[in-house]
Design goal:
Blueprint lengths: L2 E3 L18 E2 L30 E2 L15 H5 L5 E3 L7 H11 L2
Antiparallel strand pairs: 1-4, 2-3
This protein binds iron/sulfur cluster (SF4).
Length: 105
């Protein structure tokens, strides 16, 4: 499943540079599939996890770090443990790897 950032976020920015998919964005910053990936879709989006208050994770770009890290890199560095499982976006291992392969063809 994807990881999400809760409203306990203190906007310290520790997680943002750790994401291999560039799935983490600052508050109010629109996300794009093309940021940090091989995808060419550079449409600016404000759906799927977008937040105007806290750092957020673009759900469609989070692979739980599959193919890069043994555990979610954002959760590992978060000082307030606000990067947690997004129970509304449960995915299988195969789905996560397919997502990773779509982002990094
Ligand atoms: Fe990025 Fe990994 Fe965190 Fe998902 S779990 S947002 S891929 S660092």
């Amino acid at each position: 499943m994807a990881i999400k950032i809760t409203d306990d976020c203190i906007c310290c920015e520790a997680c943002e540079p750790e994401c291999p998919n560039n799935a983490i964005y600052a508050p109010e910053e629109a996300w794009k599939f093309s940021d940090g990936t091989t995808m060419e879709n550079d449409e600016e989006r404000e759906d799927g996890g977008f937040s105007d208050e806290f750092f957020y994770i673009a759900t469609d770009k989070c692979t739980e770090c599959r193919g890069f890290n043994d555990e979610p890199a954002c959760a590992a560095v978060c000082p307030v443990d606000c990067c947690v499982d997004d129970e509304d976006h449960v995915e299988t291992e195969d789905e996560l790897m397919a997502k990773k392969n779509k982002l990094h063809a």
